[in-house]
Amino acid sequence: MGDGSKATAMMVQEIKEKYIIKGNPREGLIAATIGFFIGFAAVVAMGATAKFFKAELEGLGFSAFWIGLLVSMPNLSGSLLRIPFSAWTDQVGGRKPFLVLLTLSLIGLLGLTIFVNLYYPGLEAIHYPILLVLAFLAGCGIATFSVGISQVSFWYAQKDQGKALGTYAGLGNTAPGIFSLVMALSLGFFATSPTNGLMESYLLWFLLLLAGTSIYYFIGLDAWSFQLEQQGLPKEEAARIAKEAYGQEIIPAHNLVKSLKISASNWRTWALVILYFTSFGGFIALAAWFPNYWNSYFEPGSVNFFGIALAVALILNAIFVLIGSFVRVYSGNLADKITGEKTVIGGLLIIMAGAIIMMFATKGLFPLALLGMVVISTGMGVVNAGVFKLVPKYVSNAVGGAAGWVGGLGAFGGFVIPPILGAFVDIFKKGGIGYAWGYVTFVVLALICLGVMYVLTKNKHE
Questions:
Q1: Residues contacting 311, CB < 8 A, separation 6+
Q2: DSSP code, position 62
Q3: Confidence class for position 255, pLDDT limits 50, 70, 90
Q4: Is residue 112 assigned to a domain?
Q5: Using CA atoms, how far apart are residues 99 and 78, in angstroms rounded to an integer?
Q6: Residue in 294, 333, 291 with CA at minimum distance from that of residue 176
């Protein structure tokens, strides 16, 4: 037995001398986190600036629903593109998908900069679909999330993935909060410009995204099996060596269609989609909605719901994002210790409590609304970490495809929910009560998710 171990050690050493492998799990985590951080900032691409577009679009007959659609447009591309790009990661590694998505986002932000410079103020109805397209492109960077989930999963052993993925997603999730602050400062500093600071703010954002993309270009690395493939080894051989010599536990399916099919055939994938629709989809939906909620852009002809200035509204939005993000980091460790299932159930109960508090936070009850915001953000951070602890556990043979379905369709909640909240405002206009009642959406979603978790835990070993 001792001779066998010695022979194995010699074989591993020979492999490591023969092939050039760069990086390690820690470096892979850092690169993926930077790429996701810079791309995910687009969650607030339209929400932070909706006040300026809304003022003109309302005069053209656009209701709260259509403004909500514009606010959530980056989340449409950021959710749907996660599916094919995550599966593509199984085939080529994370580096290429990261760079393609970040480049598309750069095109969108540059387009918004040019558009605002040419046409704002003085928008016409024909400009609305152009804004939708540019917002869609700007949001492509949001889709880097599921690419990074797969990339980090390939680097780390399953026993360490809760902490690694919690760190990746939690720190990356801070981007909308930090960029909300950047936009607040930029809009204030350039407020006297012909575009009210819009062009300058989008240009600054474009330059920051360009810098972040450049950093990822130089430090982004694929996991061991992909590096071996890039040196000419067949996929199967590269996978075997990566497992034996480097300890890579999660081996990609390599085929985009196969990865999606394998994960789609597993019913647990769809259970996780529902959970993530509520937690992460809800998180990015509220990150886009809260600037409007606090500043009350969507109530035509009335005073502000809480009477809060835009700069302060953006700071409150940053608080919401940062709380949920840092809670997610800690909750990754929690999921490693108490299981992902228990973590998700606890987080769902917190989300429901926060949503109920928000429902009672009617006009003028700012402290209650602030408390509700903190509670619901905490719950979402906990559930987000727990769900992606469960992805490699339940769909270990197609993590890339599963991360695509879960991250993509789950994040689709960020596109679906803001127009629903806007519709509540349209329907219940008196006293702005629709702002509060809209949070019943999250109570209903949390109850559905608790039912999903009951089914998951009862069929854990099926």
A1: 184, 187, 188
A2: -
A3: low
A4: yes
A5: 14
A6: 291
Provide the CA 167 distance to its chain's centre, in angstroms.
Answer: 14
Q: So what's the pLDDT on residue 400?
A: 66
Q: For 136-175, write each residue's pLDDT tens digit.
A: 999 999 889 888 988 888 888 877 777 888 788 778 878 8
Q: How far apart are CA 173 and CA 359, in angstroms?
A: 25
**Residue 254 to residue 256: CA distance in whole angstroms:** 6
**CA distance readout (Å), 433 to 65, 283, 369, 375, 423:** 16, 22, 13, 21, 12
- DSSP-based three-state secondary structure for 324: helix
For the chain, how far is it from start to end, CA to CA, in angstroms?
Answer: 36
C-beta of residue 298 within 8 angstroms of C-beta of residue 324: no
Alpha carbon distances (Å) from 303 to 50, 294, 307: 17, 12, 7
Full domain range(s) for residue 347: 23-458
Domain-embedded: residue 18: no
Q: Which amino acid is at 263?
A: S
* Domain assignment of residue 16, yes or no: no
Q: How far apart are CA 411 and CA 276, in angstroms?
A: 7
Count how many domains the chain has: 1
Nearest to 346 by CA among 440, 266, 270, 275: 275
Q: Quote the crossing angle between the two packed helices 366-394 and 399-411, to the nearest 10°.
A: 160
For residues 404 and 83, the answer to whether their CB atoms sit within 8 Å is yes
| Residue 412 belongs to domain with CATH number | 1.20.1250.20
pLDDT score for 65: 77
Q: Is residue 3 part of a domain?
A: no
